[in-house]
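Raw record, unedited: Membrane-bound transcription factor site-2 protease
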Amino acid sequence: MLRTTWIALILGFWSALYLLDAFLKTQRWSSRTYIKFLDRTGFSVSICQSRWYCTVFNRTFVRLAQWKPRFLKTWFTCGVVFGLIAMLLSMIILSLMVYNTLFNRQAIDQQVLTPVMPGVNLPASQVSYYMLTLLVCGILHEVGHAVAAVREQVRVNGFGIFLLLLYPGAYVDLSTEHLQIISPLRQLRIYCAGVWHNFIIVLFGILVLFVYPWLLGPFYTTGSGVVIMSVTENSAVSGPRGLAVGDPITSVSGCEISSVDDWNACITRSMREQSFGYCMAVELIKDIDTSTKSKTNSYTNISKQAQQAKDDIDCCNISSSTHLCFMYHVKTSPDNKLACLPARTTTDRPMCKLQSDCYSPKMEMACVYPAVDNQTKLLKVVHGYRPPLLFLGHPLDLHYSVVLSNYVPNSLLVPLHLPHVIETFCKYLISLSGALVILNVVPCYALDGQWICHCFVEFSLRSTITDPEIRGLIYSVILLFGTFLLAANVIMAMWMLFTG
């Protein structure tokens, strides 16, 4: 979908929702009932944003904070250490990114942080993963703040979820009065708990990616082929006689496939090398040749002959769905001959690269090659229990027409897409939760890093710098620098995304 279409749909949705909210609030017949509904449910609508706020989870936060108090104290203290180290590393990373972008013109796909926008650099099929991952990371982030706050005797007023344009998130409402009276170290445990939990999510995602092949072992087979997860609609390989979802692929024109990497390597090799030929007896060629007349070509160079056969000669006369023009030569004549042969019968013969591969003492053999140009290939795809698929075209068309997986289900009852869902979701957890760690610990206005920086300055400098104005000045300088650094990264990344 075009970028402008995405933008128009998003703005249209939020405009309609905002106008509907304003309309219901201003009408006599609906205002009282509608406002009571919003107050009772906790929903609210503003420009390009909707929120849901509740207090039903407050008791859950209290119970979690009372579980193993000593462990939780150590847990959130580790979060403080991680948060401070992450803040330093984040500042270094963002500074290097600004330098690389300004002086090396670093490509957007090579940056550590890349803006993700549906319809721009996020495929529509991945939007659900993206939004679900953001919501999960946001909720667990805020749960960390809430549990740490309750443990430090800070009241939790409520918990909420919001949707800003297309970006979901969560927030927790803490008592400001309680926060202000506790020590800087206890505040650090609260403020660092969110990014600490995001880091744990990253570790969890890495662990799942590492162990899930073994966990899925009893239900899936790997190393003996790949399975088709989807086929592009109206592509050259779709249709009743083409490839189907769930078909295992084991080879392409003699190239054995045991993994997706093998598939990519076989497609690459087919583009780089000349098409394979097939051994066939010369007498049989003459018997099944359906061309109306004998045609020869004086070209001795194979590539020139293939081009000539494509442009000037159609030995099958018409575009046939079962026959294809092949070229070969015999011992008695140096000229290459053309024959219209049934493609499936011909490709069932042994494969060959050279004429010598087809030697037989009993009869004269020939290695027949598809008479096609250098870009077009005849590929034989062995899939499932059906006859092999004969693909005639550019190998990249075949490559982009299917999505494959290394995990072949052992039974029809086993979900085909489960390994792909697990792998994709874990990758999003790792990348998005890691990005939230890097961004949230930056000492920037309205981010956790703002409060982490303030508490750290108070905690570390209160005994050596007694003047609060000097400490406030140091904090303000760090905060301004961090805000500028993050803003510069966002602006440059967005600029390169839309102009690069």
